[in-house]
Amino acid sequence: MIQQNNPLFRSGTELVEARVGAAPRKSVFGFVLAFVVFVSAHAGNTQTAKEKVRIALGSISVNSSIIPIGQEAGLFSKHGLDIEPIYFGGGMNSLAAVTSNSVQFLAAGSTATISARLGGIDI
Global pTM? Predict the structure, then answer.
């Protein structure tokens, strides 16, 4: 006899609904790629005033190292952006900064982003 509440015996409809709920996942690489495309598409003349952009980073790690490396290489200032990376003590803290409009962008791991999305936060 198959038990109704056993997660190993779910119907096809339940499996599809579970996968639909998991759709908002985004990787740090995807964020960085989208950010670079955005910066490239909206690059202004270097003689105009630089636009201040604040980026929340969940931690200092290899995944989020592209932001300080690009800043040190002058890639952002070359395109008229003054980047201010702000390090938070984890993904949930940086998500709070984004949702309160304290920063414009977020580079964090998928766990915090998925947890926030499942909790009803519009990211």
Answer: 0.54
